[in-house]
Write a structure and sequence with these properties.
The protein is an alpha/beta fold. The protein contains 20 helices and 21 strands. The chain folds into 4 domains: 8-209, P-loop containing nucleotide triphosphate hydrolases (Rossmann fold), CATH 3.40.50; 220-373, P-loop containing nucleotide triphosphate hydrolases (Rossmann fold), CATH 3.40.50; 377-429, no CATH class; 462-559, RRM (RNA recognition motif) domain (Alpha-Beta Plaits, 2-Layer Sandwich), CATH 3.30.70.330. It comes from Kistimonas scapharcae.
């Protein structure tokens, strides 16, 4: 393979897809993408061997999405994945790449999800279907998934499907596809059974093999925090307060997140600034120079902006948003621990992103240790310690005669003792950055134990889950809001939950009923959401559209305490009202 990796613009992708890639922070294709995209754009069958985390989803999604006929709602591309988690992940990737493609629809289908909801969505039409083999077979047998118009089929992680016993199902599905169709098969390993399937069904396939080269240095201490309970910003604050750090780089996915997170950190008293690809070169250089000189302590950066960044004082890299692939992760944390120096890398991992965490561990050949979040008490202790240090420095080096006189006058005028007066002055001095964190208990919830094979069910009792949700909504007054995005825009309830939870910092337990309609949706939220939060949500984009939230007069209700077995359980997902299924959230800007 040539050492000169082309840019995405040189590969022949359409302008709307290139625009999406730019917004997502993609700059240079990974090796698997650079080799696979031109072949798939030309209609070749492809046999790709690459590890998870090398960017193979984009390697097949971008060119095959490029070839979709948006004027037809018929199914043109089918992607088979071994697990529901991967099916959702691939579906969300397509949605992100297609954000500027009008009339585009992608549908994930898998076991354990409401069949009724899937049937309704299939009837409305989706150009791309991403599913697990068993559920795809169910729909083919029912006649609800028609493959007559299929142009291409992708077998993602074929070796995993082999291990899970899906190989016969895959053969059956392949036999029900049109004779003239394109096939791309991707597998980390290439056992003989997979090769036989490839030789039987692929026509003159081109082969692409990519060996994972990503490794990390021993001088970098790596850890991760499993996102749960606290908002990410609160967790980040605790880490920043308790880690002995010098310069930091915090990585996010989008330029919007870069600006917003830097502003929030500035408001909390941290010397921080954004660094993203839309900044002028001169401004980027000034920002990096400030970091180098110690005038800035934190840079919130996108992958594109941080390429080639080498600042000696960077002691920590924090992956606030998990990267899209392992190579990006290695590149990110390589900003610290350079030239033999020690460094720390901290990764925030949402429950649905554990798969990428495991991919990173495999690619780096290192186990990443789970981080225990610092307690409120420890944060308060560190802040008091820093305050004491500042007081001592003032006592040692500042002229305090004027201030001594002011304190003496205050004590006489208020007729309080010196300790009470000092406490009041300290309270005023730290009011903008309190020594004590706001009382906010950490809610740590164990991830659901699922059977990774499609059709698996949560192992916890459904009645317990219904009673738990009833307790969460006890006596909460809800207000209904209208959102300017609906089924015809490809929205799913999980997209709405993710956008509101991430952007408004509302725990998803307090996001109520979601109803999907053709060109709009409604969602119930607790009353009393601050005006500035609602104003921000107006601009948040889901499926390429701003939410434009507005209250529905008279909408919402009070949630009284309920008990399991007495009407306490919420309506089953996928009910008559359009469904309230909660899926992992799609990325939003």
């Amino acid at each position: 393979m040539s050492e000169n990796i082309p840019q995405f613009r040189e590969l022949g992708l359409s302008e709307p897809i290139l625009q999406s890639l730019q917004e997502l922070g993609y700059e240079t294709p990974s090796p698997i993408q650079a080799e696979s995209i031109p072949l798939l754009l030309d209609g070749c069958d492809l046999l790709g061997q690459a590890q998870t985390g090398t960017g193979k989803t984009a390697a097949f999604a971008l060119p095959l999405l490029n070839n979709i006929d948006l004027s037809s709602k018929a199914t043109q591309l089918l992607v088979l994945a071994p697990t529901r988690e991967l099916a959702i992940q691939v579906s969300e990737a397509f949605q992100s790449y297609a954000r500027h493609l009008k009339g585009f629809h992608v549908l994930p289908i898998y076991g354990g999800q409401s069949m009724g909801q899937q049937l309704r969505q299939l009837q409305r039409g989706a150009q791309i279907v991403v599913g697990t083999p068993g559920r795809v077979m169910d729909h083919i047998r029912r006649g609800t998934l028609n493959l007559d118009t299929l142009k291409a089929l992708v077998l993602d992680e074929a070796d995993e499907m082999l291990k899970m016993g899906f190989i016969d199902d895959i053969e059956w599905i392949l036999e029900h596809t049109p004779e003239e169709r394109q096939i791309a098969l991707f597998s980390a390993t290439m056992p003989e059974v997979i090769r036989k399937v490839a030789h039987r069904h692929l026509k003159n396939p081109r082969e692409v093999r990519i060996k994972a080269k990503t490794t990390t240095v021993d001088t970098i201490e790596q850890s991760y925090w499993l996102v749960s309970g606290l908002h990410k910003l609160d967790a980040l604050t605790r880490i920043l307060e308790t880690e002995e750090s010098d310069g930091l780089i915090i990585f996010v996915r989008t330029k919007t997140s870069s600006v917003e997170l830097a502003e929030k950190l500035e408001a909390r008293g941290y010397a921080s600034a954004p660094l993203h690809g839309d900044m002028t070169q001169a401004l980027r250089e000034r920002t990096v120079e400030k970091l180098r000189e110690g005038k800035l302590d934190i840079v919130v950066a996108t992958d594109v902006a941080a390429r080639g960044l080498d600042v000696e004082r960077i002691s920590h890299v924090i992956n606030y948003d998990i990267p899209y692939d392992t190579e990006a992760y290695v590149h990110r944390i390589g900003r610290t621990g350079r030239a033999g120096r020690k460094g720390k890398a901290i990764l925030f991992v949402a429950n649905r992103e554990r798969r990428m965490l495991r991919s990173i561990e495999r690619a780096t050949r290192q186990t990443i240790q789970q981080l225990t979040l610092p307690t409120r008490e420890l944060v308060a202790e560190r802040r008091v310690s820093k305050m004491l240090q500042q007081v001592q420095e003032a006592l040692d080096s500042e002229q305090l005669d004027f201030f001594k006189g002011v304190v003496t006058d205050m004590r006489h005028q208020t007729e309080v003792d010196t300790v009470d007066l000092a406490a009041a002055l300290l309270f005023l001095a730290q009011k903008d950055r309190p020594l004590q964190l706001k009382e906010e208990p950490v809610r740590t919830r164990e991830p659901r134990q699922r059977d990774d094979r499609e059709g698996g069910r949560d192992r916890r009792d459904r009645g317990d889950r219904g009673e738990r949700r009833s307790r969460e909504f006890a006596n909460v007054n809800m207000q209904r809001y209208r959102l300017d995005v609906g089924r015809e825009h490809g929205v799913m309830p999980g997209n709405i939950v993710g956008a509101i939870a991430n952007e408004a910092e509302i725990d998803n337990r307090y996001i109520g009923h979601i109803k999907l309609f053709d060109n709009y949706s409604t969602v119930d939220l607790p009353e009393g959401i601050p005006g500035e939060v609602l104003q921000h949500l107006q601009k948040v984009r889901v499926c390429g559209r701003p939410l434009k939230m507005e209250q529905v007069p008279g909408g919402g209700e009070q949630r009284p305490p309920r008990r399991g077995g007495q009407g306490g359980n919420r309506r089953r997902e996928g009910g008559r009202d359009g469904g309230h299924q909660r899926r992992p959230a799609a990325r939003t800007e």
